[in-house]
Design brief:
Blueprint: E1 4-9, H1 14-28, E2 32-37, H2 58-73, E3 77-80, H3 93-107, E4 111-115, H4 123-137, E5 146-150, H5 156-160, E6 165-168, H6 173-182, H7 189-193, H8 201-207, E7 209-214
Parallel strand pairs: 1-2, 1-4, 2-3, 4-5
Antiparallel strand pairs: 5-7, 6-7
């Protein structure tokens, strides 16, 4: 049982796809989740379909979508760190790592979830995950939290093997659905689920598991 979970991701909606059901499940079991979201996704190309935002209004809309998504999951502690979208890779590593270190020291998590560095497609994803991993790597192994990563790169499995953690989230499909639906500027929930009943076996088969790689530190 993980009592204190720290999630570190760069964009609103990053939490929805890969880990919303897992977080809802752990929260239902008594876990406290802190979600540090680095940016508001200000540079996202999607503006809704049909458009519901423009370049000026998108940040405030995505902020509200993030809040609604966290409410759907049950996340108790949302921290918006105020970085600008598509700039994380250019942040000085020492300064970014200091922020990550402060987060970890404050939350004292026994589970950390982030992106797998170099295997997460988007430069912000990779830079965020890399910073978290650098800080955790500097900790004594005995006090280092378990670290689960999400990765999407085409060579992820070839280089790192199959995911070694699989979480059954069939009872939390509704949380996942609502988390995804909250990000209305980014996703068309009707296109994702079609006319399927979210309580159906078909939905459980397609969306009922979330998978992670446990990061294997060198020391």
């Amino acid at each position: 049982m993980f009592e204190r979970i720290l999630v570190v991701l760069p964009h609103p909606d990053d939490e929805a796809f890969g880990m919303s059901g897992t977080l809802a499940k752990f929260i239902s079991e008594g876990a406290h989740v802190t979600y540090a979201c680095l940016t508001l996704g200000q540079m996202g190309r999607a503006l809704g379909k049909p458009p519901v935002a423009n370049r000026l209004t998108l940040p405030s809309l995505r902020k509200q979508e993030l809040i609604e998504s966290c409410r759907a999951i049950g996340i108790q502690d949302l921290r918006m760190l105020g970085y600008h979208d598509k700039t994380i890779e250019f942040e000085p590593k020492e300064a970014l790592d200091a922020v990550m270190n402060e987060l970890i020291e404050d939350v004292k998590p026994n589970l950390v979830l982030t992106f797998f560095p170099e295997y997460s497609v988007h430069p912000d994803h990779d830079a965020t995950g890399a910073s978290v991993i650098r800080v955790l790597e500097g900790m004594p192994a005995a006090s280092r939290p378990v670290t689960w990563c999400v990765g999407f790169a085409h060579n992820m499995v070839a280089d790192n093997g199959e995911p070694d953690v699989e979480i059954e989230i069939s009872d939390f499909i509704e949380n996942k659905y609502k988390s995804l639906a909250a990000h209305a500027t980014q996703f068309q929930i009707s296109e994702m689920f079609g006319d399927m009943d979210i309580k159906s076996d078909e939905v459980k088969e397609r969306f009922g598991k979330e998978r992670f790689w446990t990061y294997k530190f060198e020391n």
